Amino acid sequence: MKNYSIILILLCFAVNLAAQQEFVWKPEHTEYWNNQPPVVTPGEGVKPPSDAIVLFDGKDLSAWQHADKSEARWKIENGCFTVAKGTGDIITKRMFGSCQLHIEWRIPAQNTDNGQGNSGVYLQSRYELQIFDSFNIPLYSNGGTGSIYKQAQPLVNACRKPGEWQVFDIIYTAPEFCGKGEVIAPARITVIHNGVLIQNNTTIKGNTEYIGMPAYRPHGRLPLLLQDHGDLVSFRNIWIRDL
Predict the structure, then answer these.
(1) Alpha-carbon distance 72 to 92, whole Å?
(2) Are 159 and 139 contacting, i.e. CB atoms less than 8 angstroms apart?
(3) CA 222/CA 16 separation, integer angstroms
(4) pLDDT the model gives residue 16
């Protein structure tokens, strides 16, 4: 009986070996036709792609509000809106997680307050990508334009002069938490500033803190936030894509 078992095993091995030797790979064997990616029409010029959520189209701030849910009171003029000093930060009415964000901003050419043009883009209301007048103005390296504030300095300074429009194109991956609130995966961010890569899949270490070290606190989808730091920073052409 044992001999028959051995013969059977050897016979199966020989058949499998012969089948492998006879198989001939063709191009179509590695072509996958199922689950085609959705079609997105790219924008032309300043137009957003077809699946983007437009957060400001130059007309109104209906997508935004203040933290107390009151109507956004920043000033709209000439297709852009500007911080209304003292009114407070504004947040989107919609919640977001991982996303692609396009936002254009401008520091005033003549800032009568302090010449710094200070503001910020807060992903999920917690993680600040800094806006500052970093054109020939020294500041601690993890606090200037393009820094993940107080965490990671930009790879390069790609700032234009105050008074000129600038662009952030952002790819943001939201953090993940387990049921106990522990961090499974930290947030990560890639930023292209005026066509130049300045943050390359950078790890965000936790909430933005002015004093002390960053730390995570569990959360889900949250609004995008633009900071009122008392300077007349303007914004336009804002759109976002959920990822």
Answers:
(1) 10
(2) no
(3) 56
(4) 65
Phi/psi-derived region of residue 117, left when phi > 0, alpha when psi is between -120 and 50, beta in every other case: left
Helical segments of the chain, H only: 2-22
Q: Do residues 238 and 56 lie in contact, with contact meaning Cβ atoms separated by under 8 Å? A: yes
Domain assignment present for 5? no
Q: What pairs with residue 101 in β-bridges?
A: 170, 240
- The token pair at 125 is 């209301």
Residue 36 counted as domain residue: no
Tokens of 170: 């952002």
- pLDDT over 90 at 195, yes or no: yes
Say if 161 falls within a structural domain: yes
What pTM value is reported for the model? 0.86
Rounded to an integer, the average pLDDT of 28-41 is 85
Check which CATH number belongs to the domain holding 221 and give it: 2.60.120.560
Q: What is the pLDDT of residues 161-191, one digit of tens each?
A: 999 999 999 999 999 999 888 999 999 999 9
CA distance 3 to 21: 27
pLDDT tier at 154, thresholds 50, 70, 90: very high
Distances (CA, A) of 69 to 92, 120, 136: 10, 20, 38
Neighbours of 158 (CB within 10 A): 19
Q: What is the pLDDT of residue 166?
A: 97
Residue at 186 is within a domain: yes
**Average pLDDT, whole number, for the chain?**
90
Report d(CA 15, CA 204) in Å as an integer: 55
210 is in which domain, residue-wise?
53-242
Q: How far is CA 234 from its chain centroid?
A: 19
Which pair of tokens denotes residue 225? 């936030």
- Specify the number of domains making up the chain: 1
